[in-house]
Amino acid sequence: MEQRAIRALLEQVANGSVPVDEALLKLKMEPFEELGYAKLDHHRGLRQGTAEVIYGAGKTPEQIAGIVDAMRAGGQETILITRMSRQSADAISPSHPFVYHEMGRIGIVGNLPEPDGVGTIVVATGGTSDMPVAEEAALTAQALGNQVTRLYDVGVAGLHRLLSHMEEIMNARVIIAIAGMEGALASVIGGLADCPVIAVPTSVGYGACFGGLSSLLSMLNSCASGVSVVNIDNGFGAGYLASMINHLEGKHA
Amino acid sequence: MEQRAIRALLEQVANGSVPVDEALLKLKMEPFEELGYAKLDHHRGLRQGTAEVIYGAGKTPEQIAGIVDAMRAGGQETILITRMSRQSADAISPSHPFVYHEMGRIGIVGNLPEPDGVGTIVVATGGTSDMPVAEEAALTAQALGNQVTRLYDVGVAGLHRLLSHMEEIMNARVIIAIAGMEGALASVIGGLADCPVIAVPTSVGYGACFGGLSSLLSMLNSCASGVSVVNIDNGFGAGYLASMINHLEGKHA
Amino acid sequence: MEQRAIRALLEQVANGSVPVDEALLKLKMEPFEELGYAKLDHHRGLRQGTAEVIYGAGKTPEQIAGIVDAMRAGGQETILITRMSRQSADAISPSHPFVYHEMGRIGIVGNLPEPDGVGTIVVATGGTSDMPVAEEAALTAQALGNQVTRLYDVGVAGLHRLLSHMEEIMNARVIIAIAGMEGALASVIGGLADCPVIAVPTSVGYGACFGGLSSLLSMLNSCASGVSVVNIDNGFGAGYLASMINHLEGKHA
Amino acid sequence: MEQRAIRALLEQVANGSVPVDEALLKLKMEPFEELGYAKLDHHRGLRQGTAEVIYGAGKTPEQIAGIVDAMRAGGQETILITRMSRQSADAISPSHPFVYHEMGRIGIVGNLPEPDGVGTIVVATGGTSDMPVAEEAALTAQALGNQVTRLYDVGVAGLHRLLSHMEEIMNARVIIAIAGMEGALASVIGGLADCPVIAVPTSVGYGACFGGLSSLLSMLNSCASGVSVVNIDNGFGAGYLASMINHLEGKHA
Amino acid sequence: MEQRAIRALLEQVANGSVPVDEALLKLKMEPFEELGYAKLDHHRGLRQGTAEVIYGAGKTPEQIAGIVDAMRAGGQETILITRMSRQSADAISPSHPFVYHEMGRIGIVGNLPEPDGVGTIVVATGGTSDMPVAEEAALTAQALGNQVTRLYDVGVAGLHRLLSHMEEIMNARVIIAIAGMEGALASVIGGLADCPVIAVPTSVGYGACFGGLSSLLSMLNSCASGVSVVNIDNGFGAGYLASMINHLEGKHA
Amino acid sequence: MEQRAIRALLEQVANGSVPVDEALLKLKMEPFEELGYAKLDHHRGLRQGTAEVIYGAGKTPEQIAGIVDAMRAGGQETILITRMSRQSADAISPSHPFVYHEMGRIGIVGNLPEPDGVGTIVVATGGTSDMPVAEEAALTAQALGNQVTRLYDVGVAGLHRLLSHMEEIMNARVIIAIAGMEGALASVIGGLADCPVIAVPTSVGYGACFGGLSSLLSMLNSCASGVSVVNIDNGFGAGYLASMINHLEGKHA
Amino acid sequence: MEQRAIRALLEQVANGSVPVDEALLKLKMEPFEELGYAKLDHHRGLRQGTAEVIYGAGKTPEQIAGIVDAMRAGGQETILITRMSRQSADAISPSHPFVYHEMGRIGIVGNLPEPDGVGTIVVATGGTSDMPVAEEAALTAQALGNQVTRLYDVGVAGLHRLLSHMEEIMNARVIIAIAGMEGALASVIGGLADCPVIAVPTSVGYGACFGGLSSLLSMLNSCASGVSVVNIDNGFGAGYLASMINHLEGKHA
Amino acid sequence: MEQRAIRALLEQVANGSVPVDEALLKLKMEPFEELGYAKLDHHRGLRQGTAEVIYGAGKTPEQIAGIVDAMRAGGQETILITRMSRQSADAISPSHPFVYHEMGRIGIVGNLPEPDGVGTIVVATGGTSDMPVAEEAALTAQALGNQVTRLYDVGVAGLHRLLSHMEEIMNARVIIAIAGMEGALASVIGGLADCPVIAVPTSVGYGACFGGLSSLLSMLNSCASGVSVVNIDNGFGAGYLASMINHLEGKHA
């Protein structure tokens, strides 16, 4: 149950439209719903104020479809499924509204919410091969209610490509910089922008790329301030964190 | 020159209190002031809207003192000097207001600004040996205008120590989680909090710690969403990024 | 070689009945001769007394089936086959009582023994993807005569899931903590429990997980006392050691 | 939070005596609130019941002396100080009974307790250079109330040295196997003994030893069952775990 | 931004025709605005002037065929496609002149240009298994207008094979030394030749070769002057750089 | 170049019959010219005098068959083909006497020579999974004219298995010790035997074995004298070197 | 003896000003002059056409002074001493013209030659801490007869600093790009320039810099063509190679 | 006690010149003489037929002197002390014949034996910085009764230096090839010689040398047959093994 939903429930209790007992029942069913393969943690929604996410890797199509059914039955509107195969996408019950984004290996059940973040999240990549990770990040951010601008293939070896987007960069509230190989994009963007930059190293490359180690180390050693790093190929993590930063304001309004 | 200072200057031009020529002169002297050992980048202040920072490692006491003198002459109010030795601290001219914080190896010229960030930054460490990195982060954040709460020695091997501070954790706008050895603090805090968590691995430990590699990898692989990582022992980077996030709101007010 | 035997040998040299070269050879082999290997071997047979174990990886179905037949013919009641494929399971002769546990890739010939260990072994995992390793550990422990409690998917990013099982944790005699990614589970459990914790890093994860290196290093650097580590994905080793600890008492009764 | 408490809270929301925001905050903190931290803490105090431990590395002589004074004033009889320098030892107040063991870099305040463990802990090393780590392990075990047998310099390159101690090995309840370089000692002992073997890799060696990596990997890959590993040079951790295992019985008597 | 432009801006601020915020934004973007990106881009087009290059890895046959069609339509004569599969080669429209070189995984659209470099580029390999990388390098250099001499299988374990080609080595203008395993070829050639040597480590080998790490480190540590290194298996990069060096003269004639 | 030759050259320069540039080139190539490469080559042919060796990995069945035909036509009696697949074996012309050893992935054309080495080569393995590497070593040694004794599955976790073969170990002239996982076999044998021990780490294992790194480092750090190491899984190299040592005597008779 | 010197000698022989015998004597004394600690390789000068270089690391001041004396006695005009300590500099005989450059740890005996290279070598660094390596490169290039332009502290985190030097970059014949931390400078320059770029990773940084590994991998994975890499901190190697490239033309005039 | 000594003793028993009881006493005192810090393993002498060796690293001057005294009192003629500091050398009692070799950090008590090996051991190094390791190897071999030829500074970057010693290389019975940096010497020598080559990687180098890793990997991947490797900087191990090989013949005379 999302924080928004709990607040709504409490407000319904406060204004009398939902009786205490019904609210209690809803909350009681919350934290540990046993599904057989995993304890779905609805409470996590509460604490972190976002929609529910299913990590699709290592789960069978049937398992994913089952979790989706259960979540929807539990009132969850939007569900994001990451690292989802085409086969798993085909197993989702046609009774749910559902879109599968192949490049980002992401399935989204329910409608994308209206963007309610403070500003725009820019998702930039060094090359075209980084696009699957970028789409995972961008779709995650969109599913969590953010306006997203994509700047793909603006790697530092052709600096003018990046510089021609200075306006998007200067106006972003958060930037996700995604690159494999030498991973220099994060530093260059970090030096240009005055907003938080979330760097995502990718495993794109060969040889001394060592599965993403080169861009990972490069990004961790960035000499630009305001840059932090998530795991190699972790587009979801970057999109999630960017959304969190982009929604910060509401909390303290 | 800080963004604030440039805005102030422009406003003085707008209201006529500073003539165009004088403003032009001030701006002209800006971007590249040649000091001999380094091109001080005052323009950087403009782009990133913060006070000036000197990275003290590898600079002689005389070099640091000289840069400070030049910056102050250029109108810079607050200057943060990181990785500063006691000897370098002793070399700062007594004519500048100056405090040296030994544990964090940080010197601050000028007065700490009033906190003007949106919320509170929590700086948490796994152990007492992580405190130098934590102080670097905390003092950086304070020097950049943030309210900081310190939660030191709340490592996961004694979970109740951390849980007894749930209120600070739930109320933070940004949390900096600092830990060496197994670096589990970031994941545990990331699972509890609903705000961005900046993880700082430290080189504290021995043996298979491999100079901070263990906590670095641990933090990069955090299963908690909302966690990103900076370089090993990079307290400054974490404090800077936390401040950036904590000041985001103003931009879009 | 006893002093008496050496004296006898020297006397044979002195009286010429043993040539110098032969005596020299005997002396060279001396330190290892008197050990009684058969006894050693016998001893090993004695002390295991429960299930024999076959390491299935790299063996053909036919080889495994053959070993099982031979062991059973030799009177072995329970046989544990680890890293066993479905194909190998299908090759076991139907004349043996046999169960194949697919998740843990373990086959058990004969009946599970009655638990005769001192207490209970808790097998805990950080996520659902760690379950194959956990089942290998749990079934091994059961096959060796232990009561096992499974706590799966209690990773530290949702701390309340783990904390809701404090009673099982406090009552365990040995705990096997299994986790991939950041491997923080071992430290958190190690800080809560007052019994030996055997940590099993898993290769679950991606990117900077580097095949289990992240959780391995994390567990080796655990700041909690009472934690030791076995090889990545080594569920069997953890189950075997846990059983050994859980049966210690009998020896000294 | 009990169901009753949640119902009460919801009723307060319903009757307006608790605002929605406050209720939301209470629900967010709920999963961790009811644990009874003080009790947990107390529990930890109870279960160790022997020596308190101070990790001396990174603490000044004055800090250590101060902690010792405070602990003793608090009624603590025996205090173990690990990684203690000679200078720190000299700073301990002469009013406390105190012995400093230089080789193991361990100081012990108060008298060693009478051994109350079930059996004997064997501490074995591959070479003489491993003795500092071994003494840290052995003295830790003694300070925690264990009978300890030392078998030093019994490395596998001179196998007869180890084999001449078969009796101690077969009679041990726990064995701590300490070795640098190729770390083979743990496997050989693990193959001979029928009790838990705690392997401690040391940083002894040079070249491709890589600071203990060679023996660490060797021990993690041990083909002998019943072997687990702690961090490089972690004599204390091994001694503590060995003592824990050696005291298991009392709990279930 | 010229001084004149900044003065004009300030005057607009002073007379109120430009608001402070807009002026601030203009100043922030100032350092990059005057670069003339189109010119930069044009320049890059100019300076390559020979073959365009398509990096085929990760592109579908259809994508590659489409890019080729577009380039040809745009007037590009010669097109080099690296890391090209046989399937992609089959997808190239028969209307283009096209040759596919299987060993080097390179396709060339259009005719090879007449060599117009200053001298000869020698491409040498340690073994026959290094030939795919070597062909990538050699064909790249040929497509860029260079005379190429191939010396394959002249590894250092049979030194006379290399020494029998001393004349080619002494007459080369650039040498590309390609080797896997111990990578010694680069050092030996570097010690013999008096021209730049571009070393290409390959992933050829097994075991402690670690995917090319052994030859990479070996080449980086070459004790011969004049040797530099490109990424593992990066035949294209070596061929491109060699061509660049071999065409240097024209520029300064 | 002899002094006489240089004098002659200088005189030709002096009298103008050789231009300066030509003389310069001759002097540049001088140090390598007088080596007599053919003699070198011939020498190599002489010294091997037994089996020629083909490294089968990366060669097609047709290539291997062709090389064999050519060698046989050239008079070569015995040919050893390593890393040979079953398919390649099937492609060998039936007109050659040929045996394929599947486990060691070795094909031998022609008859094995009579053993003419000085003593016996012992090939020992830690486990049964190391047998492919061992067979590569043993068959190589046999094809090069050596008496070979196989001691398989004598790993250190069951020491008595090894010790029951003390006589073979004490009588060996060279021992090849092959092991994966912790690789302790080399050290134990090295401590027992008084002959050269060639250690072969294997990639057998999982997890922290890291493809053979664990046994490689273990063997390099062996505390037993007389042990040297070849590449991971390099059975051929060990067999070749063992044969070389076992044939040393003849040279100096 | 440098190639120039030998050519001069030959020309003197050709024009009769030096008799054959005297020339022979000079050449005879050449290749292996035994100095006790090292075979000075004067012949190397011949093959590679440059001045003599002494690698000062690991040599005593006396050894260096002795080698210098011998070289000068042998007619060597300019001698470059790299990795030279202040103490070694003080030990050079005052009878030689000598300058010591402390930052680059380079001593130069004799006068710097007039630049005779084709164009200009640009030496660029990311930060001020990279300057020692840069000076080693720049002074090496100067000592070998090159015009050098220094662009220090133009790292990518402040892109305008680099871009303000576009003219120097576009006009360079070779560029040496030196950077530690994330090493992105090489890629950015490689993307801007149309000449060979020699990348030098430095060990500047901390934490996940791992002694230069981060910038090394970053540079090896550069997505810009025309970039090759030398060893970490190898300023000399870069300067030497740059000079070689900058002098290429003469050879084929 | 060396094997020679035991044989002599047995012969004295056989010819009656030593009574059985006296021989028994001598043998009984043998295997484990307790010296306080280490069990001196005289028996090791027996098994391996060589003089005694003390590994000096990590032992105090007093400990070393004490061990020497005890060994000499026990009849040991020649004692080799490796990794010995000048201070330890000064502590050796003047009553023993003793020479200290500073470069190789080796002390030798007693006279060097007459060479009794079969042939000559060549010790070759790539550079002068490898000489300490080479001297350790060469002096070890000499102390064990071998004729040694030193070929220092014959690295592959100046191939003619190595080739000018072809005669020594072709006549060697064993070659020890010692090199740091790229370690190519072992492969080149392995390709030239027809005798066993023992490769010793050294930690000489900087940057991507990574403490000897580069030459270690290079040597392990040598494409020349007959090459095996010992630990980084392990001159003693190489000298010992070379001596073992060089003395093989006697055993089977």
Automatic annotation (TrEMBL), chains A, B, C, D, E, F, G, H:
<dbReference type="Pfam" id="PF00731">
    <property type="entry name" value="AIRC"/>
</dbReference>
<dbReference type="InterPro" id="IPR039476">
    <property type="entry name" value="P2CMN_synthase_LarB"/>
</dbReference>
<protein>
    <submittedName>
        <fullName>Nickel pincer cofactor biosynthesis protein LarB</fullName>
    </submittedName>
</protein>
<feature type="domain" description="PurE">
    <location>
        <begin position="119"/>
        <end position="251"/>
    </location>
</feature>
<dbReference type="InterPro" id="IPR000031">
    <property type="entry name" value="PurE_dom"/>
</dbReference>
